[in-house]
Each structure stands twice: as C-alpha cells, then as structure tokens.
C-alpha cells in the first residue's frame, strides 16, 4: 500500500484513541467548575466530523454533540460538570458509549507517570487533522480544525504549562494555515518543536527519548539530510521534504492504519 515502514512502538491503536476520549469526558473536563460550553461543543463537533469512530462511539459523539448544541443555544444556561457526568452515565448502559477503562497500548510508558494521556492526545489531534483532509471535509477549513483543537487545549487541557505553550505557539494559526494539508503539516511541526524543547528534560520517559519525527527508520525519504542515523536532535534532519512528510502522515494516521483489536 505504501513505501513507509511501521514499527510497533509507533502503531496507532483505537484503544489509545478511545482511552483519550474516555479520559477527556470522565476525568479531564469534569474537574472544572464551569465548562466553556462553546469550546467543548466545537471540539465535539470536530470529533463527529473527523474522528474515524467505531459505530457505538460515533453514536455517542453525535448524541453528545446535539445535547451540547442545545445548551450553547440557550445563552443563560451554564454547562456544569455534574450535567456532563449525568449525561455520560445515562449512556454508559446502552450501546452508545466509550469504553469505561482507560488503557494504553502505544502510549504505555515504562512507568505510570510517563506517556499515557498526553501521548494519546497528540495521536488524537494528528488523527483528526489527517482524517478531516482525507474525508474531504468542506464545512471546516484547516485553520478551523486547528482553532477547535486550540480551543480544547486552552479551556480543558489539565497540563497548564502545555496549554500555555501550545496556545502561544498557535496564536497566528489563522494566518499561517488555510487548507487541511497545511493543518496536518502545521501540527506535525508544532509537535516536533515540543519534542525538541522536551528532549533535554528529565521528566521524559528514558525508554522513549524525544526524537525528530518521523525517524529515518519510519520514513527515510522524508528528509534530504542523509547524515543522521538515530534522529536525536544533534543529527535531526535539517531539510524536511514537506510533500513526502505529508504523504507519510496521511498514511500513518489514516483510518486504515488504526489497529482495532488487541491481536492486530
Ligand atoms: P508524544 O510526544 O506524546 O507523542 C506521541 C506519539 O506521537 C509518538 O509516540 C509518535 O508516534 C507520534 N509523534 C511524535 N512526534 C510527532 C510529530 N511531530 N508529528 C506526528 N506524530 C508525532 N509536556 C511538557 O512537559 N511541556 C509542554 O509544554 C508540553 N506541551 C504539550 C502540548 C500538547 C498539545 C500536548 C498534547 C502535550 C504536551 N506535552 C508537554 C506533553 C508531551 O508533548 C508528551 O506528550 C509527553 O511527554 C509524552 O511523550 P511521548 O514520548 O509519549 O510522545
């Protein structure tokens, strides 16, 4: 299907993506006192349009979105976490929900404090930018997609340092990005900037050092720079081939590359 290689430690698992969503709706959002209902409605609207969900999850997201739209329309109605919890619990019993347990596959760290949710959030965001493009979504531009991700990060991401950094680095996104392809590349570059900044931090999982992504063993053609071998920042590719990187990301984060079962 493609010329790119895939390594298990970079696999995309539906379990990581759905765990990200479960974490969002049962742990991250509900710790706030009052929820920013417009930003939540826009983010869930993005999930409805671009997340390659299994049918049960798709139903849940659609019902949740409709409910949020109703709350947003009513200007005087605040959205409290208790209402969201109630909504979530109501749908837990039927076949219209997310898995209850948060479990990591690719995002499993070597110790519990490493990787996990932030890793799955990045994978979710890349999956969204790619699938908005491949689904040919016309009701949203690439800038809209990133603005909705930015709104989520600003209002809800519980890592405040991450949220502040990401918010600042994306402040000109509406001028810099127009198309879905540009949004895919913008997010890839932004993620690499974060990887580079964190590469020297001791809080990083020693078994998963931060690298210039994608490494050569995943996509040798992605860079003109043939000197580097191990993709640490000292020998990171200086000249990326954006078109090759774009094609790589579109394959890597496509619906066809998401592992649905444990054995895949
Ligand atoms: P992650 O960086 O989480 O990456 C997850 C997976 O994405 C990787 O395994 C790889 O398969 C893939 N990937 C890696 N790079 C790219 C790329 N460039 N393009 C596409 N795919 C890629 N932590 C801080 O300490 N300070 C911060 O300021 C900070 N800001 C953050 C901002 C956001 C929006 C998010 C979601 C997280 C942020 N984090 C921050 C957390 C940090 O970036 C990592 O998520 C965390 O350290 C776990 O790293 P990881 O090794 O699991 O890989």
Can you walk through the features of this model?
This protein is mainly alpha-helical and 264 residues long. The protein contains ten helices and two strands, in the order E-H-H-H-H-H-H-H-H-H-H-E. The chain has a two-stranded parallel sheet with strand order 1-2. Helix 2 (37-50) packs antiparallel against helix 3 and helix 6 runs parallel beside helix 9 (180-198). The protein is globular, with a radius of gyration of 18 Å. The mean pLDDT is 90. The chain binds flavin-adenine dinucleotide. Residues 10, 107, 115, 118-119, 121-123, 126, 153, 159, 161-162, 165-166, 188, 191-192, 194-195, 198, 203-205, 208, 213 line the site of flavin-adenine dinucleotide (FAD).
